[in-house]
User: Fold this.
Amino acid sequence: MNGEAWQSDEIRPSTVHRAYGRGASGYDAFVGSIPGYRTHLRVSASRMGLGDGPGLRLLDIGCGTGVSTEALLTTVKGAEVVAVDASAEMLAVARKKNWSPRVTFVHTRLETLAEAGIEGPFDGILASYLVSNLPDAEHGLRLLLSLLAPGAPLAVHDYAVGGSRGRTRWATANWTYLLPMASMRWGVSDLARYRMKRVGGAGGPEQMVHRMERAGFDDVRVQTVGGVQQHLVHTFLGRRPDEPDVVGERQARSSALAAAGWRPDRAEPEPDDVGSEPVDEGGPGDPGYADEIPEEVREDTGGDGDAEPDADTEPPTPPSGNRQV
Ligand SMILES: C[S@@+](CC[C@H](N)C(=O)[O-])C[C@H]1O[C@@H](n2cnc3c(N)ncnc32)[C@H](O)[C@@H]1O
Assistant:
């Protein structure tokens, strides 16, 4: 017995894309039965604050059947999108849809992007329900960081459930609609049960924020979505620091300054003081993330990904000075 004894015999983080492949034909019908699924993806894409995005190059990593790709294209209208997935079957469903020539689909894993000829820098990355599927989330986040241009954002749109309330909410969501809908529409009940256990054991929003910070992201923020997925699904935003090699560059710079006889100003805050600042939720003081979500993003447009109206999708909450969890 090891720490992964809870996993089903068939599905492992390193092979989960095969299970998605088995369920590819039913995937859109399944996510279409989750109220707000497409709307929430558009909200997360919009929260990156990229505007209309002409000339921008974006990555949709773990694009699946293209539902998240569509969210990126409809919110960042002028951007070019490279959409990547490890499952050939999921991509085959995606490719059958009607796409703008600005979209390119690529069959590879996050871990082997360079071998597939996909290189950064990207002006923004959307990772929707990908990170919770990775064998090592922090390693995956580091790979994503390395693909971003300095200052560019990553939006992780994903489940995160923590504490007894969060886990109870997650169990209720699974037993009342996710598992029954997966059985009726998706055809891969084993994958749905695997996801229930994996997400349930992966920690809450705070842990995800810490993972992103440890991976090297700046300005990490989190906000949940509205409706039945509230406090289950979140947008985690982080940015590649403007100075990629902060430690090395700072050390080199301070050695050069010391050699020139310069002394650091002691009135400057120590790095630890800066690190203890709470991460707020975005808003006017937030360097670049969207502080308002356009009306057309928040409202359902009646696509096949939102079976029910999603009037309760909420715009971002005002900054509170605390992380939202
Ligand atoms: C839940 S689906 C999300 C699809 C889409 N982003 C959406 O929001 O509907 C997760 C996708 O991640 C893909 N995936 C899992 N591990 C991966 C990896 N290491 N690299 C690339 N894709 C991966 C799976 O094949 C699957 O299509």
About this structure: The chain has one domain: 16-244+280-298.
